[in-house]
Amino acid sequence: MTASALSEPSVQLMGLTKDFGVNRVLDNVNLSFRAGSIHALLGANGSGKSTLIKILAGYHAPTSGAIRLHGEELALPATPRAVHDAGVRFVHQDLGLVGTMSVADNLALALGYERTAQTISWRKQRDAARRDLAAVGLDDVDPATPVKDLGPVQQTLVAMARAIRGLEPGRGVLVLDEPTARLPNAQVDELLRRCRSLRDQGVALIYVSHRLDEVFAMADTVTVLRDGRVVFDDPIAATNEEHLTGIITGRTGEDPVPAARGPRRKGAVGSEAKISLRGVSGTFVTDIDLDLHRGEVLAVTGLIGSGRSELGRLIYGTQRVTAGTVTHNGQVLQKITPELSIRRGIGYVPQDRKQAAVPGFNLAENLCLADLDRHMRAGFLSKASQRTATLQAIKDLDVRPNDPDRALRELSGGNQQKVILGKWLQLDLDVLILDEPTYGVDVGARTSILASVLERVASTGLSVLLLDSDIDLVAEYADRVLVMRRGQIAKELSGDDITVDNIAAASYAVQPQGLAASGADILEEK
Ligand SMILES: Nc1ncnc2c1ncn2[C@@H]1O[C@H](COP(=O)(O)OP(=O)(O)OP(=O)(O)O)[C@@H](O)[C@H]1O
User: Gene3D superfamilies given for it (predicted)?
Assistant: First the structure.
């Protein structure tokens, strides 16, 4: 590389504009990303971050504008090959892994198979995969495991490993689209360290995130997109969290993001158990006793592999209970399936959005899917009734764009999440199980999602089982917290004992002051 090429930005976007039909989603974006720098790309749900990245990846063609990589103009529309050859690598929100293929095969898809003479060497392949996995802390994962059998957190790390492999320091550009959205805090720190080390090796990192703490922990430069335009592009030192939140949401000091709830509720929770588990086991969780009361927000948290997600699947019926009893409204359930759960008034929002909605259906179809009977008029499905319900849900959850006819897949990730939650809120629910409900959701939308749920809790006595690794969120919203470790409930916290430090300490089984030393003690789901 010539000296002049080195002084050029690694990536330069010049007047990038993108229209989807009549909608302009990127509007004359001019940005530079430099080697040896971590550049955070922020913006509310739907502001255009993913679209920008997809153009850079060669997935979308821009309507107009140009891109230079290391000073050289990239032929547009870019091909994934040309971008890859220029050293630009991606971890997309949807990870781009093939679920039915093994971890080793998914890793090999990126850089080819290890060969001995003309044949693929499976031993070398496995060894290479093990090295890749170790690089992201997944030493215990067998490379032969199909990716679909891994939890979303582990899948994120596999995608990270794949992107990092073969990245050429000094010329590499690593684009991370919300890589930590599902990672527990200890892994977030590890990831941030890895990012800093890549920056120190001269990589240009483009880091899309909704988590401002991470951005302030490591970014050098921050860009904020709003409605497809750059509204802030400065060194991190030029801003602070409050200022940046205002820029992202477009709200000023007099009109801040509303708080979802007041101080912790006292005495509002009913004593009647809606769901009770006694001695319940699945494949990883064992011997769980738990009561979820009427009108209660019960959070279950814990590190990767602690088993909290499995609890949701067992209660809803997407996974079989292998021992113990589940009781609903005092009745022991003989059979648990998703269909029966819906009839019983038990809703479930899984971590993986793709399981929870039909991407090709429009918003009205997705939102009304769970309760079509409500929209039947004289034996026909009433479009007008669906539309009215959809417009209300769109308003309550602040879904953007607010168009019931828009296909779900055309919405940004955070807005899809709102629709999925909205679908369940259409039902007359008794119990709602939420697994990481604010994954990939911006600060403003996170508040509107949780406010909608809490409104239902207050108005109908809905019981919420909140399965979440985000300790801050759990500490803020839960009436009671169960901390899981290695498939069992390790600690129960209530009232004023619900603090971030206490939850973290219980997750790691250390005293609060010893947290820093325990970062490596991460449990892995077997
Ligand atoms: N394939 C598509 N067809 C039509 N419109 C689209 C398509 N993809 C994205 N959009 C629209 O472009 C806008 C920007 O979406 P984008 O996914 O880039 O937002 P984002 O900033 O990444 O949001 P999030 O933080 O929720 O992921 C949104 O209004 C979205 O509805």
Answer: P-loop containing nucleotide triphosphate hydrolases
Distance in angstroms (rounded) separating the CA atoms of residues 468 and 394: 24
Residue nearest to atom 28 of ligand 1 (CA): 46
Domain that holds residue 463: 273-359+429-516
Query: What is the 79 CA–ligand 1 centroid distance (Å)?
Result: 20
Helix (H) or strand (E) holding 38, with range, is strand 37-43
Reported as a single tens digit per residue, the pLDDT across 34-93 is 999 999 999 888 899 989 999 999 989 999 999 999 899 999 988 988 998 888 989 876
Pairing of strands 346-349, 376-377: unpaired
Which tokens go with 42?
């922020």
Pocket of ligand 1 (CB under 6 A): 20, 25, 43, 45-51, 401, 410-415, 440, 442
Q: How big is the chain, counted in residues? A: 526
DSSP helix/strand/coil, 498? coil
Instruction: Judge whether 191 lies within some domain.
Output: yes
Ramachandran angles phi, psi of 93, nearest 5°: -60, -40
ipTM of the complex: 0.96
The CATH number covering residue 335 comes to: 3.40.50.300
Do 106 and 98 meet the contact criterion of CB atoms below 8 Å apart?
A: yes
Nearest-5° angle of CA 252, CA 185, CA 352?
85
**Do 315 and 465 meet the contact criterion of CB atoms below 8 Å apart?**
yes
Is 5 in contact with 34 (CB distance < 8 Å)? no
| CA 153 vs CA 182, 358, 391, 439: distances in Å | 6, 23, 34, 11
Report which protein residue has its CA nearest ligand 1's atom 9. Answer: 410
Residues 340-386: tens digit of each pLDDT:
999 999 999 988 777 778 888 999 999 888 778 888 888 888 888 88
Q: Please tell me the distance between residue 142's alpha carbon and the centre of ligand 1 in angstroms.
A: 35
Same domain for 236 and 300: no
Parallel, antiparallel, or unpaired: how do β-strands 37-43 and 204-208 relate?
Answer: parallel
Structure tokens, 481 = 């917290």
Closest CA to 420 of 457, 458, 467, 370: 370
Flag whether 339 is in a domain. yes
Residue 386 domain-assigned (yes or no): no
The rounded radius of gyration (Å) of the Cα atoms in the chain is 24
139 and 244 in a single domain? The answer is: yes
Question: Distance (Å, rounded) from C-alpha 463 to C-alpha 465?
Answer: 7
Question: pTM score > 0.80 for this model?
Answer: no
Q: Which atom belonging to ligand 1 lies closest to the Cα atom of 43?
A: 21
